[in-house]
Write a structure and sequence with these properties.
The chain has one domain. The strands form two sheets. Strands 1-2 form a two-stranded antiparallel ribbon. A two-stranded antiparallel sheet has the order 3-4. About 5% of the residues are buried. It is built from four helices and four strands, in the order E-E-E-H-H-H-E-H. Helices cover about 35% and strands about 20% of the residues.
Length: about 100
């Protein structure tokens, strides 16, 4: 039998209780992409080459996470209620830090 634990409080979610799924995506906003006329006059090839050299020295997972990361959490009904009110009132989340597992 599958046993579910709440990713927020750590309590077991009994099979008779509703399990809620919280999906979160963090990604780079495309609204910040702005190119001025002076940007278009630059040597873009040299800048791209420099950027590629910088990226080659970086950790691929870190590069990927800078652009997009997705998390999925199972939460119990009590934690769902607390999170709901936090989101509604735009309060800071007290969600635990999630470590990445490979």
């Amino acid at each position: 039998m599958i046993q579910y634990l709440c990713d927020r409080c750590g309590n077991e979610i009994p099979p008779t209780q509703t399990r809620f799924s919280l999906n979160m995506q963090l990604f780079a906003s495309k609204e910040n992409l702005y190119f001025s006329e002076s940007d278009l006059k630059k040597d873009l090839r040299a800048e791209m080459d420099q950027l590629i050299r910088q990226m080659e020295r970086m950790d691929p997972d870190q590069l990927n996470d800078e652009v997009y990361v997705r998390y999925e959490f199972d939460v119990c009904s009590a934690c769902r209620k607390e999170l709901y009110f936090q989101f509604r009132r735009r309060l800071p989340l007290d969600f635990p830090k999630i470590e990445r597992y490979n």
